[in-house]
Structures are given as C-alpha cells and as structure tokens.
Amino acid sequence: MTRVAAVDCGTNSIRLLISDIHEDGKIKDIVRTMEIVRLGQGVDAHGEFAPEALERTRAALAGYVQQMKFEQVTRVRMVATSATRDASNQREFFDMTAELLGQIQPGARAEVISGEEEAMLSFSGAVSDLPADRAPFCVIDLGGGSTEFIVGEADGSILGMHSAQMGCVRITERMMPSDPPSETEIEIAEDFVEERMQEVERIVPVDKAVTFVGCAGTFTTLSAIAQGLERYDADSIHGSELRFDGLRVLTRSLMLEPAEMRALNPVIHPGRADVIGGGAVAVEGIINMIERNSEARSFFISEKDILDGIIAGLAEDVQAEAE
C-alpha cells in the first residue's frame, strides 16, 4: 500500500486529499479538507499576488504538510491553476511550495497546469461515480478565476474542452464590488458571463452532452442550500440533482443578498460568502447556455473533481512502478 496526497491551489481555496493506493489499484480516501485562502486576491486588477494572500496560502500549505507527515504520505502532487497562471510574482509562490512539499517528497513543488490539463483532471474525477449510460457528460468546474467545460465519454475520451476566464472571485472583484451589488453591476456581470458562454458554444460540443455535472465550491454549496442542510454534508451533496427552474430562484436570491446575510447560512463557508453572488451569476449564465443547446434541465453535483483526478494519476504511476 502507498499513501499519496493531492493538493489543488486555486484562486479562492487550497484543498488537500490524502488517499491509500492498494496493491490491486483500489483507492481509499483518508483525508479531504479545504481552506479559503483567496490567493487570487487582486491578481485580476494588479497582475501579482498580494503579500498577505501568499502568507495565508503558505500557512495553510504548512498545515497540510504537517498533516501529510502525520499520515505518513510518501508521494505528493500539487497543482496550481487560474490565479497562478496570471501572477507576475509566481516564482515566490513556487519557491515556497518547493520548500514545504520537499519535506514530503524531495523535489516536489507546485506545478502550473494549463486550463486543458485542469479540465481533463476534473473530468476524470467528476464522472468516476456516474453510470456510463448517462454519457456523454459535460463537466463544469466553476472556480474562483476560471471555469472549465469538458464534454467527454464514460471511457474518459474527451470530445471538447475550454477554460473560460470567469469565476466567482473574478466576477465579484471586477464587476460586483458593492455589497450587496447593484442591479447595474449584476447586469454587467451577466453580460460578461454571456460573452464567455458564447465562447464555450463555439469551442465545446455542448449539444452532444446528455448529462451536465457541476463540481467545485459554488455548485456544491448551492446543493447544500437547496437541500436545506443544517451543516455541510458531502455525502448528501455528492450525486444530488439540482433542477434549473428551482436553481434560478436560489441564484437570484444570492445575487441580491449582502455577504453578511449569506454568511449566516451554516453551509456557506465564511470565506465564500462574499463571492458566491458572483458564482450565482455564472451559474445562471451557464443554465441559459445549456438550455439553448440541450434538452437537459438539471445539474448533477459531484464532490469529486481535480483532486480525485490527480490521485487517479498517482495510482497509475504507482501501479506502473510496481510492474
């Protein structure tokens, strides 16, 4: 048995998954956790990481490394996505990750991955528990700075993908800075999302998809709210279905609420309360795009995503080395 770890550092959060890889190739999850660090704070406006954002991220990653040591992890892969691709001072970030991750596996450091690789890893994780007869799937990974759209088959073959430069943090900082946002700010954000959706329609064969899968924090939080959960429960959220008509009511309500009001809901992480309105605008625009191109009228929500894709790749490496 080999114990491995995956770390995903995005615009808004940093997440950890520790798993066991058994000799027969089976994977068992040991730890899954997340912290909001807002690494992408101000990157869209200034083009570089803020010192305080780097420090929050360093502190969170240092905690993860201590957890990996406790769990006796021997192999780790960390990926960095949208915010890191955009920051001019990314070297400082990478040096910090090398110093910390090297304590687990010599030479390990965060990797900047392309939107395309991010999409493929997210697709692999998100569809792993879905029945093959619901394919083709369109996986939508809505992050802080970008949103990945991937259409593919149950066997993992990809029919098309695109990384759209929109996410809950980017939309909030750029177009919805007021709290609560004004109707004008919301309209500007909606227009921005619609432009991104037109790009998706040109690039990705959305019309070939039968099942639409939403993953990452905005989608999973919307599921928790829609179900009326009193606490965030990943088991209840994973595999849940959100119908578009009811979801539109929920997203509109979140857009108009002040962050202080959103934060009172126990399933909304305090670090997500100020940006989930931007995420709601993105979801509403995605719904409109799907309805133009498909008969589908709901999302299936997956708690599995890029972390699970990374772990699956590490499992393949472990198996190959054992042969």
Automatic annotation (TrEMBL):
Keywords: Hydrolase. The keyword Acetylation does not apply. Its EC number is 3.6.1.40. Residues 22-293 form the Ppx/GppA phosphatase N-terminal domain. InterPro entries: ATPase_NBD, GppA/Ppx_hydrolase, Ppx_GppA_N. Coiled coil: none annotated. It is an enzyme of class 3 (hydrolase). GO terms for molecular function: guanosine-5'-triphosphate,3'-diphosphate diphosphatase activity. It holds the Pfam family Ppx-GppA. SUPFAM superfamilies: Actin-like ATPase domain (SSF53067). The keyword Hydrolase applies. This is Guanosine-5'-triphosphate,3'-diphosphate pyrophosphatase. It comes from Corynebacterium endometrii.
